[in-house]
Structure formats: C-alpha cells, structure tokens
Design brief:
Blueprint (H helix, E strand, L loop, with lengths): L1 H31 L6 H13 L13 H13 L10 H7 L5 H22 L4 H16 L7 H5 L6 H5 L8 H11 L10 E4 L13 E5 L2 E4 L1
Length: about 220
C-alpha cells in the first residue's frame, strides 16, 4: 500500500514539474510587459479611464494594480490585447498621444533598473529593493555620476552584480515593481548615492560615507 502511495506522489510531482516551468516562464513574460510611462502620461491614462468609467482611484500618476485592472477592462471592451500595458494602440484608443521614442527608452530603462535590483537586492525587503533602484536614479541626477541609467549601472566597478555577471539574470515581478516605484518617485534612502552590505564590504572608503538609513542588510549613505 505504501509503495502505491509513494508511486502516485512521484507521478504527480513529475506531471506537475512542466506546469511549474511553464508558470515560471509565463511570469517572466508578464513581467517584461510591465508598464513604463512617465508620471504625467500615467496621469493622462488615469484621467481618461476615470472619464470613461473604468477607473475610480486617484489621478496620481502611480501605475498601481487599480490602474492596471482598469486598463485591462478597457482593452477587453475595445478588442485590444488585454495585457494591462498602455502601448501605442491602447493610447490611441484612449485618445492619448505618446512619445514613441520616450516610451521605448522608458521601457529599456525600467528593464535594466529591474535587472540591477534583482541582481543586487533579491532577497532583501521590498523597501530595500526600491532603495537600491532609488540610489541608481539618484546617481543619474547627481553631477558626480553619469547621466543615464545604463551609464550608471555599467560604470566600471560600480556594482558587484555587473562584475560577477549576475546583471544578466532575468528580473522577477517584484524587482520590476520596485524599479517602477522608484521611477515614480519613492526614495526610501532620502537621496543616498551609495549602499553596501556592512558584513561583506571590504572597501575602507565606503565606511567613511555618512549613513542615512539601514534597510535589511544594506546600509545607505551619502
């Protein structure tokens, strides 16, 4: 009897494994289709959806789940691909004009930012993942660093994940959400330009920076 039960459980595991692989691949595909508009464009989307009766939340430019659900409902009602992403076709149906080049750049920036968050901070608290993304964005705004996300991320020896190749890992949805929250203005570091793991950092110089906040295992400093 025990042998029969063991065999049945093993069979269930074997049959379920491909489904798990499929779901994991599907999750990555969904994450790569995440929203990447500017705050003002998101506000325009929310306002239009509100006028059409699909959205009842705040017009704050934050592309949260409520906005995404409203976009999907609008897309379904208008025969569009219901992926929750406001691309050119959905924007056109809403009567909103998007800057194609800007949208493409924003999408590329979001993807790289999410990759960096995943490579550098997966396993950290969500706030800590947002904080890592915020540091990168703060560097973009600082005159002491390069002025694009790609240049900041790939600045020589700036990030361990680039040096050891982990930057090439595909980000999960949590990393995308953290990157998007940072791009929408959430900065848990209050303007920090540096972060490090106090238990593994080897640079004496980094310890000389002024600590602002510690989130998870990362110390954020200016």
């Amino acid at each position: 009897m025990k042998k029969i039960i063991f065999f049945s459980l093993a069979l269930i595991f074997i049959l379920a494994a491909p489904l798990g692989v499929y779901l994991a691949v599907n999750d990555v595909s969904t994450a790569q289709q995440t929203q990447a508009l500017t705050v003002n464009e998101n506000k325009a989307v929310q306002q239009k959806l509100k006028e059409l009766g699909y959205y009842s939340g705040s017009v704050d430019g934050v592309y949260g789940q409520g906005t995404r659900n409203a976009v999907i409902a609008f897309q379904k009602a208008n025969g569009l691909t219901a992926d929750g992403v406001v691309g050119q076709n959905t924007a056109r149906a809403l009567g909103i004009s998007l800057n194609t080049q800007q949208v493409a750049q924003s999408s590329s920036d979001l993807y790289l930012l999410a990759k960096t968050v995943y490579a550098e901070a997966r396993g950290e608290p969500y706030e800590g993942q947002v904080a890592v993304a915020a540091v990168i964005l703060n560097r973009v705004e600082s005159p002491d660093f390069p002025n694009t996300i790609a240049e900041v991320v790939y600045q020589p020896w700036a990030f361990t994940a680039v040096h050891d190749g982990q930057i090439n890992l595909e980000p999960n949805e949590t990393a995308y959400s953290a990157a998007r929250d940072a791009m929408n203005g959430w900065d848990p570091t209050y303007g920090c330009l540096y972060y490090y793991n106090a238990s593994t950092a080897t640079s004496k110089w980094i310890f000389s920076r002024t600590t602002v906040v510690t989130i998870g295992k990362h110390v954020f400093a200016i």
